[in-house]
Input
Amino acid sequence: MGWVTEHAPTGAEVNACVRCGLCLPECPTFRLTGKESFSPRGRLMAMSAVADGVVEVDESFAGIMDSCLQCRACEVVCPSLVPFGRAMEGARAELAAQMPSRTRTARHLLVGRVLGSPGLLRMATLAVKVGQKTRVVRVLPSLLRSGFAGIRPVKPVAAQPGSTYRALGQRIGRAGFVTGCVMDVWFSDVHAASIAMLQRAGYDVVVPATQTCCGALAAHDGDVKDTHRLAERNVVAFANVDVVAVDSAGCGAHLKDYKHWAGQAGELFSKRVFDITELIDQAITSGRIPKSSVDRGPVAIQDPCHLRHVQRIVDAPRNILRAAGYSPVEIDPDGRCCGAAGMYSLLQPELSHQLGAAKADQVRQSHANVVASANPGCEMQLRSHLGKGYEIVHPVELLWRAVQEDDR
Ligand code: SF4
Ligand code: SF4
Output
């Protein structure tokens, strides 16, 4: 039958692959399994075979696509600049269109309903927290159960919808603050630190009340309709700000890719999107945020794939840690995926667990007991696999903590 949607991988995207294999050593799922079908090249060949009508979009094809983390480490080394992330989103859209009855109903409920509603997410989190203290969670498979251990305690919302937090010192612009879905409920301390540091960087911080989930999980899951809807709503919500500030690397990567989901308006929107580490690093470099002279010790740095491979941001979180008085300790110069990858830990628990365990080992070998990670999913994965004795925080939280200590 071939492809049936306008979001399918295009011939130009798939045929750009020259089958050189340079991406294979960079692909976490190929490294774990050694299987060609679990490599970028193998996945592109499977897409090509569907386009040529040689194979159908069936369970076998779904298995090849679903095992991909969408970490995009393959894009960084590809000499032919294959837009693998876009092609994979197209393949996921085809799976959703051609195999709607697979497990996608439950996924749609989770992605479209629970994550899209802060109230429902709070209730679901409360249920999980109660379940953690009872037998309910203990009867879940151990690999799935470990994921719940990574959730931070739920706190009151830090970024109040409709609020403006005024710049401290010289005002340089107006930043629209992305509250996200899980960030707002599970990571309100990260939001509080990000807003405080943006104020110190000279931004008036506004929290548009009409904003919604960025749509990254919906896009990864092939839900084209929802992804369009969410993108179009955010483009309008953030129309009147100079920059769009986001403190979740996964959300930022998707917000920078709105041209695929909201046309020209989306492309213009994406040009104003910055990860919080970029904005704070700029403020440090230009002297708007002073550097601490206190030596606060080592911090292991974990690079989220959507920061390092997709947004190509490597230096900014390290500069922030140094400005806060910490010494960043490298744990993985190649920035391999930790296995969190959106809902991957729920949908592919075995592979996710192996990658999470390997990343935790890298942290242990660093001998640092504080880890800086700029993405909520990675943070939860690390906490699940490291267990007690480690603190996992966003780099901007460490800077905000240092600024408050230095102010005393
Ligand atoms: S590096 Fe690029 S061109 Fe080479 S096999 Fe991988 S995807 Fe294809
Ligand atoms: S996105 Fe990541 S997991 Fe998927 S093929 Fe590329 S390197 Fe492998």
About this structure: Residues 26-29, 40, 43, 68-74, 84 surround iron/sulfur cluster (ligand 2) (CB under 6 Å). The first strand starts at residue 164 and ends at 165.
